[in-house]
Design brief:
Layout (H helix, E strand, L loop, with lengths): L1 E6 L3 H14 L3 E4 L11 E3 L5 E3 L7 E2 L2 H7 L5 E3 L4 E5 L2 E5 L3 H8 L5 H11 L9 H26 L9 H4 L16 E5 L3 H8 L5 E4 L4 H4 L5 E6 L3 H4 L9 E11 L9 E3 L8 E4 H5 L6 E9 L6 E2 L3 H16 L3 E3 L2 H4 L5 H23 L1
Parallel strand pairs: 1-2, 1-11, 2-10, 7-13, 11-17
Antiparallel strand pairs: 3-4, 5-9, 6-9, 7-8, 12-15, 12-16, 13-14, 14-15
C-alpha cells in the first residue's frame, strides 16, 4: 500500500514526492506517461555528447531564497545570467527593450533620462489596460509594438495581442538603462550537471518508487494508495466534462552543427521573420566545452503536448468550472501548471509544491493531535 500516488514526474510531482518521502516518511509511487523523469525540464546528452534540453530552454531564476535553498539540496549551481537578442530589420537588438536597443535601432545616442522622454513621446495612452496590445502600446507606442511584439505574439499564440489577456506581454519589461539581462531575479543559475541529474538526486529515496511509460489510469485500480497528487491536465482528470481547455504547443527541431558557436546570444528571437519564434544555443546555458554546438528551433502550434494555457477570459471561466470540481474531489491534490491551468515559471511551481506539501503535512499533524 502506497500513501500517495503522484501523477507526473515534473517539478510539481517530484518536489512533493521528495518532501512526503524524506520529511513525512510516506511511501510514494510516481507515475509518468513519458519515458523519463523531469517533465519539460528534462535534459540529456545527444548523439554528439552535447547536453540539450529536449523541450526547449529551461533557465532557472527566482527571488525566493526558500526555493533556491531547497533545490540546492540536490544540485550544485553554475552562475548564469540569460541574455536574448531579437532579429529586427536585419539587426540583432537586445530584448527586453533597453537604452542600447533604441540607440542601435535608430542610430541615436540618448541617455537614460532622454530615453524616458522618448518613451513618453511615442507611448499611446489607453483608458483601460485589458489586452496585451494595450500593455505594450501604452508603454512604447505602436512602432516598437509592431517590430518586437506583435509578430512574435501572433506566432506564439495563434492570436493577435489585442485578443490576449494583458498578462502575456506584461511579463516582458521595458528598461531605460543598459541592463541587457533577460531576468533580474536575485538567484540566477543553472544546475551544474543538468536538470535531470538534479531530479535523479531528488527522487533517490527508498520510500519513492517510479513507473515511467505508464498512464496512471492503467494502474490506479490495481495498486492500492491512500491519496493522489495530480499534476496532469485538470480537464483530462474529469474526462473533459465541460470541454477541452485550450493550450498552445510547440514543435522542437533540434540540430547539431559542426562548429563551436552558432549565434551571438543564448537565444535569438525572430518576431517578424520565419515560422519559428526563437533559436536557442544550449552551450551558452550549460557552459559545456565541445567542438560542436547544438541548437533548437521552436515552432508554436495548436496541437501537441500542452505547454501554455491560453490566457483569455472565456478560458479562465471554463477552468473555474473544473476548479470547482477539483475542490470537491476528496483525497486528490491538484498541483502545477496543467492541474491549475496557469503559466508558472519553474521556481513558482516549486514554491506551489512546497506550499501544498506544507498544507498536507500540517493537516495530517493537526488531524493526528
Amino acid at each position: 500500500m502506497f500513501d500517495y500516488l503522484v501523477v507526473g514526474a515534473g517539478f510539481a510531482g517530484s518536489v512533493i514526492a521528495e518532501r512526503l518521502a524524506s520529511q513525512s516518511g510516506k511511501k510514494v509511487l510516481i507515475v509518468d506517461r513519458r519515458t523519463h523523469i523531469g517533465g519539460n525540464a528534462y535534459d540529456h546528452h545527444n548523439d554528439a555528447g552535447l547536453l540539450i534540453h529536449r523541450y526547449g530552454p529551461h533557465i532557472f531564476h527566482t527571488n525566493s531564497r526558500e526555493v533556491f535553498e531547497y533545490l540546492s539540496l540536490f544540485t550544485e549551481w553554475r552562475q548564469y545570467q540569460h541574455r536574448v537578442l531579437a532579429s529586427v530589420d536585419g539587426q540583432l537588438l537586445p530584448i527586453p527593450i533597453n537604452l542600447d536597443t533604441i540607440n542601435k535601432m535608430y542610430g541615436l545616442s540618448l541617455t537614460s533620462f532622454q530615453l524616458e522622454d522618448f518613451f513618453s513621446s511615442v507611448a499611446e495612452k489607453r483608458e483601460r489596460i485589458r489586452t496585451s496590445e494595450d500593455v505594450v502600446v501604452s508603454k512604447v507606442g505602436h512602432e516598437l509594438y509592431e517590430k518586437f511584439f506583435r509578430g512574435y505574439t501572433r506566432k506564439q499564440w495563434g492570436l493577435d495581442p489585442s485578443e490576449l489577456d494583458a498578462s502575456v506581454t506584461a511579463r516582458v519589461p521595458t528598461r531605460t538603462n543598459r541592463d541587457d539581462r533577460y531576468f533580474t531575479d536575485m538567484y540566477q543559475a543553472m544546475p551544474l550537471y543538468g536538470f535531470t541529474r538534479m531530479f535523479e538526486r531528488m527522487l533517490d529515496h527508498p520510500n519513492i518508487k517510479i513507473m515511467l511509460n505508464t498512464d496512471y489510469r492503467d494502474i490506479e485500480r490495481i495498486i492500492p494508495y491512500r491519496e493522489m497528487i495530480y499534476t496532469g491536465p485538470v480537464d483530462e482528470y474529469f474526462d473533459l466534462r465541460f470541454g477541452k481547455l485550450p493550450y498552445r504547443s510547440i514543435e522542437f527541431e533540434h540540430e547539431t552543427l559542426d562548429k563551436p558557436v552558432h549565434q551571438k546570444a543564448p537565444v535569438v528571437n525572430y518576431p517578424n521573420d520565419y515560422l519559428y519564434t526563437r533559436v536557442t544555443e544550449f552551450k551558452y546555458l550549460t557552459g559545456q566545452e565541445h567542438p560542436k554546438t547544438s541548437i533548437v528551433y521552436e515552432f508554436p502550434c495548436a496541437e501537441g503536448d500542452p505547454y501554455y494555457p491560453v490566457p483569455r477570459p472565456e478560458n479562465a471561466e471554463l477552468y473555474q468550472k473544473y476548479k470547482a470540481l477539483a475542490d470537491q474531489t476528496l483525497n486528490v491534490h491538484f498541483v502545477g501548471r496543467l492541474a491549475t491551468y496557469k503559466y508558472y515559471n519553474m521556481d513558482q511551481v516549486v514554491a506551489q509544491a512546497l506550499s501544498v506539501y506544507g498544507k498536507i503535512s500540517g493537516a495530517k499533524k493537526s488531524g493526528q493531535s
